[in-house]
Amino acid sequence: MLDYVIRSATLIDGTGDPGRQADVGIRDGRVVTVGRVDELGTTELDAAGLVVAPGVIDPHTHYDAQLFWDPLASPSNVHGVTTVIGGNCGSPLRRSTPRTRTTSGR
Q1: How far is CA 16 from the centre of its chain?
Q2: How does pLDDT run across 15-68, given as a tens digit for each residue?
Q3: Contact by Cβ (8 Å): 19, 9
Q4: Helix (H) or strand (E) holding 30
Q5: Which is the most buried residue in 22, 70, 78, 91, by most CB within 10 A?
């Protein structure tokens, strides 16, 4: 038995192919089957009319400060972003001083 089965979703698989109707079977936190899933799930979700797609990593954000008051990094989460990477623009939350500067900042 699967832990979860998402049924009748429009599946976007990340390959660039058009969306297609499919079921998704999940066991132990991993997708184990995609397509027509005959096996039952402990939890079954009807996703007819909904889209199932892989999560998106946003490698360039400016959420460094925003995460302090908005831990969901809105609106990224509503666009399918599951992971954000911050601090890569050279805009730290506070200035470094000679006393706090690391060797990587020299």
Answers
A1: 18
A2: 889 999 999 999 999 999 999 999 999 999 999 999 998 888 888 877 777 777
A3: no
A4: strand 30-35
A5: 22
Q: Which amino acid is at 74?
A: S
Sign of CA dihedral 44, 9, 57, 66: negative
Please spell the DSSP secondary structure of 36-67, one letter per residue.
S--S-EEEEEE-TT-EE---EEESS---TTHH
Tokens of 83: 């992971």
Residue in this structure with the two tokens 């490698």, named with its chain if needed: 59
Rounded Cα distance between 48 and 37, Å, is: 15
Stretch (H or E) spanning 69: helix 66-69
Model pTM score: 0.62
Question: Do 2 and 42 touch, CB atoms closer than 8 A?
Answer: yes
- Tokens coding 53: 């797609």
